[in-house]
Write a structure and sequence with these properties.
The protein contains twelve helices and four strands. The protein is an alpha+beta fold and 287 residues long. It has a four-stranded mixed sheet, with helices on both faces. The longest helix has 31 residues, at 256-286.
Length: 287
């Protein structure tokens, strides 16, 4: 979140310099709503429920930094509300009360050290997994099943990504729940093993899959039909790519970079088809 804050400060500085007010407002909104409230506050709830005082203090320190900077970023657009909240934040932190109007506006150079591409990449991975779990739950666990806490199995074939997921299962569980559904129970499938039969599957890419155990809860034949439809869509994309790459003038007229991109896309489609095929076979065997 500190990296995203640094990005927001840098982006907003450039937008205000260019007098692009619409984009500036969007930048502040997205940091507050989509990143701080939607992700960070949800992710730290398990930490704040623990007895680890050091972890709680670190989390509160980061949150204070985000609120302190975030209110100053927002002040030009919402002066009265930010003035009130800024002074209340000072009281909560035991600091002398002062007007936000005389506080320095956040500068990119002051927060540049917080930027971390690795941290943002890892968080994007967790966000994609959490969104996948929520999507499957919303599709199948409706009505009385909405409050069911399913067993979720994650297949991650990239060792580095698997290590990130293994270290952040608690955070992922917090992000994968909704306001009306409890956190799921997460399992990282070991290399060479397979998730249990009877799971609804969401294939994120060729190396990343989410399997939500639904056996005994839903009609498995419905999931087979959905996967078959998804496979047909992927086959269509792959067929178009292969037809393009098979054209006589493709090797001479198409730029090498584009050829590499097309080859990577084709390989990705083949990987998705293989994963979908395994999922269909798994459901058919469990039905």
């Amino acid at each position: 979140i500190l990296s995203r804050l640094a990005h927001a400060v840098k982006t907003l500085d450039a937008q205000l310099t260019a007098y692009d007010m619409a984009a500036a407002v969007t930048t502040v909104y997205e940091f507050w709503y989509k990143e701080l409230c939607d992700v960070y506050l949800e992710a730290v709830k398990p930490v704040m429920k623990q007895e680890d005082a050091a972890a709680k203090h670190a989390t509160q320190t980061v949150l204070h930094a985000c609120l302190h900077h975030g209110l100053r970023l927002l002040h030009p657009f919402m002066p009265y509300v930010t003035e009130e909240l800024y002074q209340r934040l000072a009281l909560l932190a035991g600091e002398p009360r002062a007007s936000i109007m005389v506080a320095p506006f956040p500068q990119p150079a002051a927060v540049a050290a917080w930027a971390s591409e690795e941290a943002e990449r890892d968080m994007e991975l967790l966000a994609s997994l959490a969104a996948s779990v929520r999507t499957v739950r919303a599709a199948y666990l409706k009505g009385p099943l909405e409050r069911h806490a399913p067993e979720v199995y994650i297949v991650c074939r990239a060792p580095a990504a698997a290590a990130v997921v293994a270290s952040q299962l608690e955070t992922l569980a917090a992000l994968a729940k909704s306001s009306r559904s409890p956190p799921p129970t997460l399992h990282l499938v070991a290399e060479g093993e397979a998730p249990p039969a009877g799971c609804a599957t969401d294939v994120i890419d060729a190396s990343l899959e989410v399997h939500v155990l639904l056996k005994g809860l839903i009609d498995l034949s419905r999931e087979v039909a959905r996967l078959q439809k998804e496979a047909a869509a992927v086959e269509g994309r792959l067929a178009k790519l292969q037809a393009k790459m098979a054209m006589p003038e493709y090797a001479t007229k198409c730029k090498p970079q584009q050829q590499q991109e097309d080859a990577a896309k084709a390989q990705g489609c083949e990987g998705e088809l293989a994963a979908i095929g395994r999922a269909i076979a798994q459901f058919e065997a469990a039905a």
